[in-house]
C-alpha cells in the first residue's frame, strides 16, 4: 500500500518560515539547506518547506486551497492554543468558533498557508 509520508509547503522566505515552524512545533529541522528545510515529526511524517525561489522550483498553481490541521485532545486545548497563538502574534484568519465537529480556529503562517486547530470528530 502506498502511504503519503511528506507534506511540502512552498514558501517565499525559507529562513522566516523555518523560524516560524521551529517555534510552532517545538523542534529543529533534521535537514536545512538554503532552499529546502525538513522537520521529522513523531508520527513518521516529514514536514518540509521549499523555496519558491529555488533553481528547480516549478509550479503553475497559486493560492492556498488546503489546510494543515493540528487535531488536539479536546475543546479546552483548542481554546488554549487559540489564546497562545494570538499572544505570539500569529495571524488568525478564522476566529475561534464552534463548528459541527467542535471548537476550531484557523491561523496563517508567514506565506498564508492555513493552519487549523480542532479536535477529532466526536
Question: What secondary-structure arrangement, pairings included, does this model have?
Answer:
Elements: E1 6-11, H1 14-25, E2 31-33, E3 36-40, E4 46-51, E5 67-71, H2 75-87, E6 92-99, E7 102-108, E8 114-118
Parallel strand pairs: 1-4, 5-8
Antiparallel strand pairs: 2-3, 3-4, 6-7, 7-8
Over the alpha carbons, how many angstroms does the gyration radius reach?
Answer: 15 Å
The whole-number mean of residue pLDDT values reads 92
Helicity, in percent?
10-25%
Instruction: State which percent range the strand residues make up.
Output: 35-45%
What string gives the helices and strands in order?
A: EHEEEEHEEE
Q: Can you tag this structure with a few keywords?
A:
2 helices, 122 residues, globular
Could you explain how this protein is built, in words?
By secondary structure, the chain is α/β, with parallel strands linked by helices. It is 20% helix and 37% strand. The protein has two helices and eight strands, in the order E-H-E-E-E-E-H-E-E-E. The protein has helices at residues 14-25, 75-87, and strands spanning 6-11, 31-33, 36-40, 46-51, 67-71, 92-99, 102-108, 114-118. The strands form two sheets. A four-stranded mixed sheet has the order 1-4-3-2, covered by helices on one side. Strands 5-8-7-6 form a four-stranded mixed sheet, with helices on one face. Strand 2 and strand 3 form a beta hairpin. The longest helix has 13 residues, at 75-87. The mean pLDDT is 92.
Amino acid at each position: 500500500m502506498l502511504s503519503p509520508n511528506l507534506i511540502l509547503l512552498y514558501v517565499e522566505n525559507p529562513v522566516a518560515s523555518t523560524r516560524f515552524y521551529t517555534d510552532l512545533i517545538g523542534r529543529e529541522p533534521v535537514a536545512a539547506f538554503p532552499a529546502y528545510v525538513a522537520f521529522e515529526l513523531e508520527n513518521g511524517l516529514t514536514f518540509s518547506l521549499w523555496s519558491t525561489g529555488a533553481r528547480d522550483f516549478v509550479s503553475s498553481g497559486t493560492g492556498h486551497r488546503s489546510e494543515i490541521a493540528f487535531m488536539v485532545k479536546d475543546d479546552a486545548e483548542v481554546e488554549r492554543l487559540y489564546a497562545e497563538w494570538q499572544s505570539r502574534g500569529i495571524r488568525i484568519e478564522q476566529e475561534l468558533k464552534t463548528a459541527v465537529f467542535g471548537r476550531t480556529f484557523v491561523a496563517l503562517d508567514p506565506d498564508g498557508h492555513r493552519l487549523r486547530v480542532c479536535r477529532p470528530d466526536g
